[in-house]
Amino acid sequence: MAIAALITWLITAGFGFYMLTTWISAGGTRSGADGAASHFAPPRVFAHFLLALAGLLIWILYLIVDKSLWAWIAFVDLIIVAVIGDLLVLRWSTDRRLQKAAAGGTSPGSGLAEQRIPFPVVVLHGVFAVSTVVLVLLSALEIGPS
Predict the structure, then answer these.
(1) Which of 98, 55, 57 shows the shortest CA–CA distance to 74?
(2) Tally of CB atoms within 10 A around 113
(3) By CB neighbour count within 10 A (0-12 exposed, 13-18 middle, 19+ buried), where does 77 fall?
(4) What is the DSSP string of 65-83?
(5) What are phi and psi of 52, to 5 degrees?
(6) What is the pLDDT of residues 81-108, one digit of tens each?
(7) Is residue 25 a contact partner of residue 32, using CB atoms and an 8 Å limit?
(8) Could you tell me which of 45, 56, 17 has the C-alpha nearest to residue 112?
């Protein structure tokens, strides 16, 4: 279970890193002429990324030392990461719906940096993130094979 959590965490991180680099390359960290290159606050984006990375490192430590305290610390970290991620995806989906409505039902425009992130990547990141949280919890509870 713990190795499965590591695998899903790494896959989640891969999608997350792709989204982060897409957002940065589209100007997410800069203000546009109208001050709206992105509706994502850079501290929130980077906190999500850095806390997820810290949690992954803690999980690797747990796999090495096999002390349940580290699994629980990683789990709590993941909950915080998930809350921040939920705030980001809520803003992303709201902007996506508004842009789609403004465009008369066609695909959303690419005015905001975060709207350049492909929909399937966001969904897959979320699916693997939820899987990771569940697997980490099951591992911390010592349920299933170790």
Answers:
(1) 55
(2) 23
(3) buried
(4) H--HHHHHHHHHHHHHHHH
(5) -65, -40
(6) 999 999 999 999 998 888 777 766 555 5
(7) no
(8) 45
Spatial separation of the C-alpha atoms in residues 114 and 20, rounded to whole Å: 9
In this structure, what are the phi and psi dihedrals at residue 90, rounded to the nearest 5 degrees? -60, -45
Can you read off the two tokens belonging to residue 29? 């960290």
This prediction has a pTM of: 0.88
33 burial type by CB count under 10 A (0-12 exposed, 13-18 middle, 19+ buried): exposed
Amino acid letter, 137? L
Q: Using CA atoms, how far apart are residues 92 and 115, in angstroms rounded to an integer?
A: 7
What the block records as the tokens of 119 is: 């929909």
Joined together, the tokens standing for residue 121 give 């990547």
